[in-house]
Specification:
Strand 5 and strand 6 (about 115-125) form a beta hairpin. The protein has a 6-stranded mixed beta sheet. The chain has a single domain (about 10-70, about 75-125), classed as Nuclear Transport Factor 2, Chain: A, CATH 3.10.450. It is of the alpha+beta class. The protein is built from 3 helices and 6 strands; from the N terminus they run H-H-E-E-H-E-E-E-E. Pfam families: DUF4440.
Length: about 130
């Protein structure tokens, strides 16, 4: 039933780079300010949350501002990474995120730019109990 999620050998370097950036907005070494998150995301970035709701870039940036102003412990674990090239300079990264008892599948579309990486789209889907 599960797909074969083997990353092509030529994408190992991209996989390693992107894995270090996930989960997005939770890696302080890539930034913590609104300006950092703006640089990290495409102007037309949007996401679909685990609830199925769609969120604009502006909304996500506002949520990140509020999170920074009232930090709470966020213990998480990532695993099962897979990278796939969608087009030249455009990559789909998928993985699983465990936050306490909550398990979600994550997908992020990343664009490689001359000066770094940019997030184009993100989705989190909660894994249903078996």
């Amino acid at each position: 039933m599960e797909p074969d999620l083997a990353t092509a050998p030529e994408l190992t370097g991209v996989l390693d780079e992107l894995r270090r950036r996930e989960p997005i907005f939770h890696r302080p070494e890539y930034g913590t300010s609104r300006a950092d998150f703006e640089r990290m995301t495409a102007a037309d970035f949007w996401e679909i949350g685990a609830s199925g709701r769609r969120y604009s870039r502006a909304h996500i940036l506002d949520v990140l501002d509020a999170r920074r102003d009232s930090p709470e412990p966020d213990v998480w674990e990532t695993f099962g990474f897979h990278c796939r090239r969608l087009a030249t300079g455009l990559y789909l990264l998928t993985y699983t995120l465990r936050q306490g008892s909550r398990l979600t599948r994550r997908s992020t579309i990343w664009r490689q730019l001359p000066d770094g990486w940019e997030i184009v789209f993100h989705q989190g889907t909660e894994v249903a109990a078996a």
